[in-house]
Amino acid sequence: MKKYICVVCGWIYDPKEGDPDGGIAPGTAFEDIPEDWTCPLCGVGKEDFELYVEEVATKKEVKQTPEQKSERKGLAYNEIVENVFAVGAQDWDRKLFDELIPLPDGTSYNAYLIKASEKTVLIDSVEPAKADDLLEHLMDLDIENIDYIVSNHAEQDHSGSIPLVLDMFPDAKVVTNPKCKKYLIDLLELEEDVFITVEDGEKLSLGNKTLEFIYTPWVHWPETMSTYLEEDKILFSCDFFGSHRATSRLFVVDEHKIVDDAKRYYAEIMMPFRNHIKKNIEKVEKREIKFIAPSHGPVYNRPALIIDAYKDWISPRVENKILIPYVSMHESTALLVDYLVKRFTEAGIHVIPFNLPKTDIGQLSIELVDAATVIFGSPVVLGGAHPQAVYAAYLANMLRPKVRYVSFVGSHGWGGKMVSQFQSILSDVKAEIIDPVFVRGIPKEENLDEIDAFVDKIIELHHNL
Length: 465
Ligand code: FEO
Description:
This protein is an alpha/beta fold. It is built from 14 helices and 27 strands.
């Protein structure tokens, strides 16, 4: 049951408590209160109450003068084309996504509002912690009614504020596919009757504009879909083509930088689903696309930028690049890694060592997108690999990069089972395993032949990439 606020004195009617002194029993919905009831604080009638959205500023509280709006730190809405607005939220301070991937530039949760001749539609919502930004942007636009809330994806960074939007616009229907509906009920406890479900390729007329729903599974969850606005040729792609960046710019400006941001996003979310992405790109490319409006990062006004980048990332092509994620406790493994870096560099191979206790694991993930070889380095600790190296290998296995070769190097004092441990962790990485090199203690002159043979073998493989 919903709370209502007195617009004169600010007293809030909570149906759980009712107004016993005024003869209203606890548990009475505001709608069921007799018409002659009055506010217990200021005495005005029921007609002077309006819906109160908890923890979110009411319309009355956030009405601002143009001067106040221009002073606001957060973003206002932005218009992509006439009557299509970006109304989401920027998260400038977020440092970690999924409690996993560092975000050096924050991120955004994009939502879009379409005002058509007959219907008004919200495409997705925002992370619940940023709901006030979304609702404020809707109020800035003087939106009095929302007919449909399209939910492209049930994950809470896009769906989490839907219940609040429904509180504010109780007549709105949530438009999504049957699988997403099920997830939304599980995650948000939405009522069954709030949904309209759509099939793959189904269209929805909004009057002078038309939406088409395109199932694009596994970008990022199995239920994910994209929504295409036919008349304006805008693809609302949700996570698909997204990038981690908070920005005041509506459209992509620095293309090179945004592709890097998108690569970080792709690495964590999309890389394991390359085959699905290929099919999904083919599917959406059947439409003419002027804009891609994802749910993270700026809008692409040159869609080929991100589509071509995705095509490259999902292709079998790898770069002449070797990654060495390693950890070293007493410098023995580090010395070995230094030598490998020197030899590979001399051979003209791009080599990147990642000192795991100090590295940005997101940067390692980015480089995994197109590296040809990964060599994990670790000392033997208590009979196995160092936990930091195990974590990196586990992450790589989850991301399933297209690397061609994998190997291991390190040092030990008295043996251990590190290699079998790594191989077991990396079971989903379909790469050729190159015989590893381990030295006893620090690398010495007597180890050079074995180390050089290892390096030469990898250089030869890279010559034939
Ligand atoms: Fe941006 Fe899968 O949520």
